[in-house]
Each structure stands twice: as C-alpha cells, then as structure tokens.
Specification:
four-stranded mixed sheet, six-stranded mixed sheet, alpha/beta, binds (2S)-sulfonatepropionyl-CoA, 2-enoyl-CoA Hydratase, Chain A, domain 1, 263 residues
C-alpha cells in the first residue's frame, strides 16, 4: 500500500528574499518525499523569480526542527540515498541555488535534515538547537557526497565522531566546530536572520552567484578512481541489503531499541 507522503513545505517571496517553511507536525517535521519535492520546486521557482537569498525554517515550536528523512519512506529494496532520490536532489538544488540559503534553526535536527541544514550556506540557531547525523542508528549506509558535506563543514575529526556516535552536537559546540554561524536568542532569531538576508540583497547578485558556485566547485573538488567509486558502491550495497538495515527500520517502527548483528 503506497503511503501518502505527509506534510508540506510552503514558500513565499518578500521582495528579494524567499522563505521556505517545513511543516509535518505529526512526524516532527520529518522530510517526506512530498516535503523534499516541495523544497526543490520552491527553490527553482525562487530562482525564476529573481530571489537573491533564501531562508529555510520549520514549524518546530522550539523543539524538533526536523526529525530527518521520513523513515517510513526509506526503501528496503534499493539504495536509500541514491543520486536521483528526493533528498539528494534537494541537497544539490540548495548547493546550486545562485544565492545564499540560510537555515534558521530553533530546535533539534536529525539525520538527513542535519545534512540539509549543513548544506545550506549559513546556519543561524537558537541556544536549544542541536545537530545529529544518525545512519548508524538505522543500520543505513550513508553516501559519499553526504559524508563529504560533513567533512567540509566540520572537518574529518568531528565528522567521524558525529557519524560514529550519532550523538547530538549542542548549539555551543555546533558554533565552535563550524556548523552554526551564529547563536541568537529565540526572540531575536527571525529579526537577526532577516537583517542578514536583507543586507545580502543590497550586494551584487551576480558576484554572489559566481562566488557561491566557486565554493561549490572547490568544496567538491575531489577525484576518486572508477575502482574506488565501484568499491564504495559495493560496500554500501552490502549495508543496505543487510539484516542490520531491516532491523534498524523495523525497530524504529516498533518503537524499540534495534538488536544489530553486524550482517
Ligand atoms: O508514533 P507516532 O505515529 O506519533 O509518530 C511518532 C514518530 O514515529 C514520528 N517520527 C518520525 N516519522 C518518520 N520519520 C522520522 N524520522 C520520524 N521521527 C519521528 O513522529 C511521532 C513523534 O515521535 P516521538 O514520539 O519520537 O517524538 P519525540 O518528541 O519524543 O522525539 C523526537 C525525536 C526526533 C527525538 C524522535 O522522534 C526521533 O529520534 N526520531 C528519529 C530521528 C532519526 O533517527 N532521524 C533519522 C531518519 S533517517 C535519515 O534522516 C537519514 C537517512 S540517516 O539515517 O542516514 O541519518
């Protein structure tokens, strides 16, 4: 039975600033296929409407900004994070948007939502926000471009700790390791973010777009051999066809701790 993908991302344009709001109340703003497609569509619409800066926020009421990929929509019969999957399409659209995308964070951020947040250009958070990347909790193989996003953002040392422990990084440490650009009080978050976005719109849109594209090209400037690529895909295939992955997803749905066997 095909699950109806839940939630939505709504957008509005205010002069040269585009705002995207993620809303999926019943699932702690989990990134459903619908929400991810909405975000991608809105970014493309903003680009066609000459938007210079984008703000991505969530209806989180200060608790969970986003619980990450909608686990109910993670496939068990194929690579859950392949190139054309909605999450990967959305991340590339953020990277390719010709202007800064600012993540305005006022809650906890999990899994694929953490990847989405750090793929944004600037992150502004409140003192209660935190960031966790959690594939090891589900027995899921993350993908090479996703791992690279974390290496580029926090460095390989902290990226390893985040992936291996799946523990949340709190706001203060997130500022220290480079996830957050600023921590501001809850009641100042919107005005602070808005003021930064507004200040950017006063500068040359063309220059900003070319500088952002250089950042994207330089941060992805890694070469790996065809053999290395095939080895990565082969290793990941072992994981997403493993009993551990099935156990991770099943345990989440049954609201119990998983019992991984390593096969
Ligand atoms: O039981 P009901 O129907 O009320 O639904 C519950 C949860 O099942 C649901 N929910 C989710 N549904 C789909 N996908 C999710 N990621 C997800 N997270 C939560 O929301 C309802 C309320 O959840 P509950 O009772 O746990 O809320 P809470 O306030 O006690 O705790 C909030 C969280 C976020 C700490 C908790 O829900 C949680 O730990 N969620 C899973 C976080 C996570 O592991 N996300 C990674 C998803 S997979 C992903 O993003 C990547 C592919 S990867 O794995 O590589 O990182």
């Amino acid at each position: 039975m095909k699950l109806l993908s839940k939630g939505q991302a709504v957008g509005r344009i205010d002069d040269k600033i585009g705002i995207i709001t993620i809303a999926n109340k019943t699932s702690r703003n989990a990134l459903s296929i619908k929400i991810l497609s909405d975000i991608t569509r809105l970014l493309n619409e903003f680009q066609n409407n000459n938007v210079t800066v984008v703000i991505i926020k969530a209806e989180s009421a200060g608790k969970v900004w986003s619980a990450g990929h909608d686990i109910n929509e993670l496939p068990l019969d194929k690579d859950p994070l392949s190139y054309f999957d909605p999450l990967e399409e959305t991340l590339r659209t953020i990277q390719c948007f010709p202007g800064p995308v600012i993540a305005m964070i006022d809650g906890t951020v999990w899994g694929g939502a953490c990847d989405l947040a750090i793929t944004c250009d600037i992150l502004i958070g409140t003192p209660n926000c935190s960031f966790a990347i959690t594939p090891v909790k589900l027995g899921l193989p993350y993908n090479a471009t996703g791992i690279l996003h974390f290496i580029n953002r926090v460095g390989i040392n902290v990226a390893k700790e985040m992936f291996f422990t799946a523990n949340p990084i709190d706001a203060n440490r997130a500022l220290n390791v480079g996830i957050l650009n600023h921590i501001v009080p809850d009641d100042k978050l919107l005005s602070f973010t808005w003021e930064m976005a507004n200040s950017i719109t006063k500068h040359s849109k063309l220059s900003i777009a070319v500088i952002k594209e250089q950042f994207r090209i330089l941060s992805n400037a890694y070469t790996i051999s065809p053999e290395a690529f095939e080895m990565i895909q082969g290793m990941r295939r072992k994981v997403y066809f493993s009993k551990d992955y099935i156990e991770g997803i099943t345990a989440f749905k049954e609201k119990r701790q998983p019992n991984f066997t390593g096969v």
